[in-house]
Amino acid sequence: MKTKEKGYNIFQNIIHLLGMAYRHYKIVFLFILLEMVCNGLLPLFGLYLPKMAVELVLENQGLDHAMLNLGVFALAYVLVQCINSLASNGKYPFQNTLRMVYTQSLFMKALDCDYAIMETSEGQTWYEKAKSAINNGDQSATSQMFNATARLISGLISFIFVFGIISSLNIFIVALLLVLSAIGYFADNAAVNYEEKQWNLFGDLRKKRGYMERAMADTTAAKDVRAYNLKPLFWSINENLLQRTFGYLTKVKNRYFLSGTAKTLIALLRDAIAYAYCIWQVVNKSIAIPEFVLYMGAIASFSTWLNDIISNIITLKRESIRIDDLRAFFEYTNKLDPEKPLPIETITRPLEIEFKNVSFRYAEDTPNILDGLSFHIGANEKTALVGVNGAGKTTIVKLLCGFYKATEGEILINGYNIDLFKRADLYTLFSAVFQDICILPVTVSENITFSKSSECDEERLLDCLEIAGLKDEIMKYDKKLHAPMLKAIDEDGIVLSGGQQQKLLLARALYKDAPILILDEPTAALDPIAESEVYEKFHEVTANKTAIYISHRLASTRFCDKILMLKDGRIIETGTHDELISQNGEYAYMFKIQSHYYKKRGDAG
User: Fold this and answer.
1) What integer best gives the mean pLDDT of the chain?
2) Is residue 104 located within the same domain as residue 162?
3) How confident is the model at residue 342 (pLDDT cuts 50, 70, 90)?
4) For the purposes of burial, counting CB atoms within 10 Å of the CB of 293, is it exposed (0-12), middle (13-18) or buried (19 or more)?
5) Measuring CA to CA, which residue among 568, 569, 565, 571 is closest to residue 588?
6) Is the domain of 213 the same as that of 281?
7) Which of its termini does the chain have fewer beta carbons within 10 Å around, N or C?
8) pLDDT for 296-306, tens place per residue?
9) Which residues span the domain enclosing 391?
10) Is residue 323 part of a domain?
11) Residue 248 near residue 198, CB atoms below 8 Å
């Protein structure tokens, strides 16, 4: 698994966001530019209006002269304000739409990134942290960075003018204001650094709370919750997570409270010194009354704008961390494809599979799940993988499909190492039915074909449903193949039983018609007789396919050409069902136990 490295500074993340905006909505740059310039100029009207009013009074040139000058000034202010409002309102929808672009991209990335990463706790934490950058509306990192960047540049424009005004009074006053403001910045920065250190913990808590929220809303668990009174347990776990989350937020807020208090005290000291100096200058008649009014406004504004600049820098630094998490998820969860992949057409049918000295472990500090595993499955051969839980059966399937890479050894299809091909191309070779049920809130047809209903081969679809033993059930509904499934989106959606759901998955695998068929215990919810019938049907329709079957029920694998008995990541017995029974080894022992169990149940009935 790749390691996420945070290598982007604030400026790089701003450029990244602006680049995304430019690619999707070029006009937004005009709005941003107008908003920054107008926001930078608007505060200057507030500075010069009092000075102008005092000067007009002292000049005593008549009301008409005063009203004309103030009217022109007011007209210019209204014009700049209107342009600013137009730019701000024009930018807002594009800014929100850009967040939607990120949301959609993240959604698609989560569906397409390395399975090996998304299956881990760390990968899920990455995903939650990436989502937090864009899932908080106007408070999302993308929007906050846009706004803070615009405000920062506007503030700098205003600050340059104010800096020039105060510098004309006394450069040492400017130096004092800058030094004291810098102390306030470091106080704020310390709070941001503390929040960053706590951010990984918060991301992990978000992941765990998300799991609990899904678990509490999971209808499949509702019966157990009530029958076993699991409410206190759910409550206890959720309360613990909420308390830890509240504790995190409280610690962060306390740091910001301390930094805010320090900034306030520093600002009082800073302004008191500056105001005292201005008053002293007036008393000594070193400056006139209109200049005094201008300087007082400039000093007050200096503090405000400098604080705003510092605040926006702090915001950019804080939100840049979130953008870093977002970009890291996109960049460090890429599929493990070769630089120069072979075209999948290089592999011609029929297909044979070979594992050569394959070892695998999920992490460097964990033991091997598979240890030097070697076996060969011939073209169109039907092979069963059997063994107790943890023997490595499903891990073999994950490696063969390319979800993981072998730690050692090679996996070959028709003599070609599967690592030579793109993952997406490799997936086209497999029709797989896994233990976990994946049914989407779309129509029956779309759930099986993964294409629009109008584009599917309906005759072929019906044949697949017939083989899977689900056709009669589906055709009972009014909309038949076009009936919606689940009730998450459509209240009229149909809900199949566990066994029926697995039959639908079998129909899906048949419809894909890939050259390699994998059944990873898909019929666990069926009774032994029904399971055996399904497997036999598959055997009939897969004569021209290479097939791998995984099942705990050994009677269901009797028709296979070869059975591999696994234990602790190794193959301990190989042969047909009859051959393994005659060897009287572990396979025969397991088969006898299962036969005895079914016999006892039959006698009891």
Assistant:
1) 83
2) yes
3) very high
4) buried
5) 565
6) yes
7) C
8) 778 777 777 77
9) 344-435+517-599
10) yes
11) yes
For 240-251, how does the pLDDT look when each residue is reduced to its tens digit (9 = 90+)? Answer: 888 888 887 888
Res. 605: pLDDT tops 60:
no
Domain match, 373 and 310 both: no
143 plus 236 within the same structural domain: yes
Query: What CA–CA distances, in Å, run from 277 to 50, 271, 281?
Result: 20, 10, 6
Mean pLDDT of 438-455: 88
Same domain, 68 and 178: yes
What order of strands is seen across the sheet that includes strand 562-567?
Answer: 430-433, 516-520, 546-550, 382-386, 562-567, 570-575
**Segment among 88-97, 337-346, 350-359, 426-435 with least mean pLDDT:** 88-97
Counted domains in the chain: 2
* Helix spans in 60-170 (H): 63-112, 115-118, 121-132, 141-169
The per-residue pLDDT for 352 is 96
Q: Provide the pLDDT for residue 379.
A: 94
DSSP label at residue 484:
B
For residues 103 and 214, membership in a common domain is answered with yes
Which of 109-118, 156-165, 203-212 bottoms out in mean pLDDT, i.e. has the lowest? 203-212
Residue ranges of alpha helices (H) inside 376-470 are: 393-401, 423-427, 444-449, 458-468
User: What does the pLDDT look like over 178-212, one tens digit per residue?
Assistant: 787 777 777 777 777 777 777 667 767 777 777 77
| Ordered DSSP codes for 333-395 | S-----SSPPPGGGSPSS--EEEEEEEE-SSTTS--SEEEEEEEE-TT-EEEEE-STTSSHHH
Q: Tell me the pairing of strands 382-386 and 408-413.
A: unpaired
Residues in the chain: 605
% of the chain beyond a pLDDT of 90:
23
The residue among 179, 184, 197 whose CA lies nearest residue 258 is: 184
Longest CA span, the chain? 120
How, if at all, do strands 562-567 and 570-575 pair?
antiparallel
CB 212 within 8 A of CB 240: no
Residue owning tokens 């209006």: 49
Q: CB 253: neighbour CB atoms within 10 A?
A: 12
Residues 329, 113: Cα–Cα separation, whole Å: 9
CATH number for 399: 3.40.50.300
**Bond from prior residue into 350 cis (ω within 30 degrees of 0):** yes
